[in-house]
Specification:
heterodimer; A: 377 residues; alpha/beta; three-stranded antiparallel sheet; 16 helices; elongated; B: 403 residues; six-stranded parallel sheet; 17 helices; 38% helix; 14% strand
């Protein structure tokens, strides 16, 4: 349900007709980690019927479980999971082959429903289904390390080796990304399976999902030998914080006209030629930020934000989590929904694009009931 | 046998620029869609001007982001402010299944190319709009890039050390998240369209996508819970973090998941003469985490990340090296899986690009060709797909609509 008094405006409501992209898709969700739950959530939101096996070794925090476990039919691990797998269009899992075999779920789909059935098996594994390290024991932390983003995500103390430590983001970013890939993989795999009248296996490697985002980081090394993240490699980001009278703002100009506008806004000071080109701005960045700070500090944050945006200078307010929860823009968009958690009500972000107007409540079910509803495969 | 490409026969009009929209288009191209990237010579996509540059030559055909993200696409060049350029976009939309854009919400409608205009010529069109702050709300017209949104979304404030300023993820993270959400939404909408015959406008706010990447933290805080900045620590595991190894900026991540895992790591440490108290409960280990980290570092700092990883994995403890670019480039596991794919670019020559976000069967998702050079496919698209006569095409080039 929508949080009291908050709703999308009329235009958005008109455009947000019920989105049932996965209507008719029958999904078995058989996982221990957040990625499978995230994929199951997306498919359930899009209208799939998702039967979730609640595994005892599940590794979700209570808060994440409240968010990700919406819209499911929950069946016991001891129930006839293999029969549900045979009836499903899509099986989502992060279990290894041994654990799948123990439940009678063929790890390559070959034995599920016969060789020519257009079923899809989507596996999320830390390092994928194949390769010499596929069997490694992994967690959110080691997946973050394996994908390559952790190396460029460090405490901002490049000159102090003791403090230049890699840091982890909130949430479980590698698994959340893998969940998006797996949900896409369910749709993509189904298209191929239906076209070929044959089962398809979708292989989601958490490491590779993260590494697939290294569009600047990897070429920097291949072409220039630069190892971004290494203390000797200068950052290539031109973003900077400027002090305001009541906090700070974040600025990064990308296009020349944006820089020109920022300089004009600051009164076209006589030092502005320090930043005539991107290369000069980079070379002189410390001096430029110091000089801009002398100008910005006399303005309030909101004043800098609004006037900067009016002048097409990309500028944002760094927000705390509390600031985000109170942010009027998000409230006006109806970007939050209320959920029951630990016997009371809390707030979670609405799913982008496909948050349904109402969720079917998560409830307990059985394999037999699920099979009856789904019908014969 | 190679798996049939899931989006074989699907055509995408990629009006995106910078990274978010093109990232979504990249995923669809990897899945076999014919993705036509619409570019402008008057305002060249900043992704083309984003380094590193092949061979160190600053040139819009050599930018690393463009090379990686626009692989497998075709490129046409239009002046979107020219009436004939706008007409050609609408004509292309009539021949496409999907349109992608990531401008602020006012831009395309202002050019006569918004959802109303494009769906009027093609009611079956699925259109994906990935603006920074969404199509509604008081800040809808604000401009931002992925790093701005990391700060705006609260993620930067929730990570790092309590004494540090907000600490962002080290890439423009809002863009790939948007691209992945967007590709998922498009795939779902295509299935829906195939059933109903009607397209859909998919409206996404990049900042909201980032919120959905850490919902548990937001829920906890909305109920008054603390949101500590933990650097690399975990409330439920210890030892846990990045540990220095022998070598230049060499690190390994180790995560001891439970008491059994700790007993295993403890045995490894004691076997090499590092004495540390048993600390048999998580509470004990959290209370003495600093001491534990000193002991673990005493072991890791004399070994390479892979030596530590192999020792931990052999003992049943989660560990992996902190992977930087050279480690990834030379990683045996990724090579055996064929993650990095080699393409031959018309200007750059052969080179590797990061691979697909997920595999579909045997080759159903793959990098299909190098990134296009600007306008490489003008004739093929405008004369071939749209069927323009040569004289009309030449006139449109002469007028600057095609440029």
């Amino acid at each position: 349900k929508r949080e009291g008094g908050w709703s999308r405006d009329a235009v958005a409501v008109t455009e947000q007709r019920a989105f049932h992209g996965a209507a008719g898709m029958r999904v078995l969700e058989l996982g221990e980690r957040l990625g499978v739950a995230a994929a199951g959530l997306a498919l359930a939101a899009l209208g799939a019927e998702v039967a979730q096996v609640r595994l005892p070794a599940r590794r979700l925090t209570a808060e994440d479980a409240t968010y990700y476990d919406r819209g499911r039919i929950v069946i016991d691990d001891g129930d006839d999971v293999a029969a549900v797998a045979r009836a499903a269009d899509v099986v989502l899992t992060d279990l290894d082959d041994h654990d799948l075999d123990a439940r009678g779920v063929a790890s390559d789909l070959g034995g599920l429903r016969g060789g020519d059935s257009p079923q899809v098996l989507v596996t999320i594994r830390s390092l994928g289904r194949t390769g010499p390290h596929a069997h490694f024991r992994m967690t959110d932390l080691t997946e973050w390390a394996a994908g390559g983003l952790a190396n460029v995500t460090r405490r901002p103390h490049v000159d102090d080796p003791e403090r230049y430590v890699p840091v982890v983001p909130p949430g479980c970013q590698p698994q959340a990304l893998a969940g998006l890939a797996a949900a896409s993989g369910a749709f993509a795999g189904r298209r191929s399976a239906l076209a070929e009248r044959a089962p398809v296996v979708v292989d989601v490697s958490v490491q590779e999902v993260v590494a697939a985002t290294l569009h600047a980081i990897f070429p920097n090394f291949v072409w220039n030998g630069n190892v971004l993240g290494h203390p000797s490699t200068p950052t290539t980001s031109m973003g900077f914080h400027l002090p305001a009278s009541d906090g700070d703002v974040y600025v990064r100009t990308v296009e020349q006209h944006q820089w020109d506008s920022l300089v004009a806004w600051a009164g076209s000071p006589d030092w502005s030629s320090l930043g005539d080109t991107p290369e000069e701005r980079y070379a002189n960045r410390r001096e430029i930020v110091a000089l801009l700070s002398e100008w910005s500090v006399s303005h309030a944050r909101v004043e800098l934000l609004e006037e900067g945006q009016r002048r097409k200078v990309p500028i944002a307010l760094p927000r705390s989590v509390d600031d985000v929860l109170a942010w009027q823009h998000l409230r006006a968009r109806g970007a939050w929904v209320e959920v029951e958690h630990r016997g009371t009500t809390g707030t979670v972000p609405a799913l982008p694009v496909f948050e349904p107007a109402t969720w079917s409540p998560t409830r307990r079910g059985t394999a037999a009931e699920t099979l009856t509803r789904w019908g014969a495969p | 046998m190679t798996t049939r490409a899931p989006l074989d026969g699907v055509r995408v009009l990629d009006l995106g620029w910078t990274w978010a929209g093109p990232f979504a288009g990249m995923i669809l191209a990897d899945l076999g869609a014919d993705v036509i990237k619409v570019e402008s010579r008057g305002r060249i996509d900043v992704l083309r001007w984003s380094g590193a540059y092949a061979d160190g030559v600053r040139d819009y055909e050599r930018g690393g982001y463009h090379t990686a993200c626009n692989r497998g696409k075709r490129s046409v060049t239009l002046d979107l402010k020219h009436p004939d350029g706008q007409r050609l976009v609408r004509a292309l939309a009539a021949h496409c299944d999907v349109a992608i854009e990531n401008f602020t919400p006012r831009v395309l409608p202002g050019l006569g190319l918004g959802w109303d205009a494009l769906s009027a010529v093609n009611p079956r069109l699925v259109m994906l709009s990935l603006s920074a702050y969404g199509a509604t709300g008081p800040e809808r017209d604000f401009i931002a890039y992925g790093d701005h949104l990391l700060h705006a979304s609260g993620i930067s404030a929730a990570m790092g050390h309590p004494d540090d300023p907000p600490t962002p993820i080290g890439t423009f993270y809002g863009d790939p998240v948007a691209g992945m959400y967007g590709a998922l939404a498009v795939l779902a909408a295509l299935d829906e369209r195939d059933r109903t015959g009607v397209g859909r406008h998919l409206e996404y706010a990049q900042v909201e996508g980032l919120l959905a990447m850490y919902p548990g933290t937001l829920l906890a805080r909305s109920m008054g819970g603390d949101v500590p900045r933990l650097v690399d620590k975990s409330p439920t595991m210890a030892p846990h973090g990045f540990y220095r190894c022998a070598g230049d900026d060499a690190w390994v991540a180790i995560a001891v998941e439970d008491d059994v895992g700790w007993s295993r790591l403890l045995a490894v440490l004691r076997a090499v003469g590092i004495d540390v108290d048993a600390f048999s409960s998580l509470d004990d280990r959290k209370a003495n985490e600093g001491e534990l980290d000193v002991a673990v570092t005493a072991w890791t700092s004399t070994r390479s990340p892979w030596q530590v990883t192999v020792a931990c994995q052999d003992a049943g403890v989660a560990a992996y090296p902190l992977m930087n670019s050279p480690r990834l480039a030379w990683d045996r596991h990724l090579h055996e899986r064929g993650f990095f794919e080699f393409v031959t670019h018309a200007v750059q020559g052969p080179g590797p690009v990061p691979g697909v976000t997920f595999r579909v069967g045997d080759g159903g998702a793959r990098v299909r060709s190098a990134a296009p050079i600007m306008g490489e496919h003008n004739e093929a698209v405008f004369c071939g797909l749209l069927g323009l006569e040569r004289a009309e095409y030449d006139a449109l080039v002469a007028s600057g609509a095609i440029h």
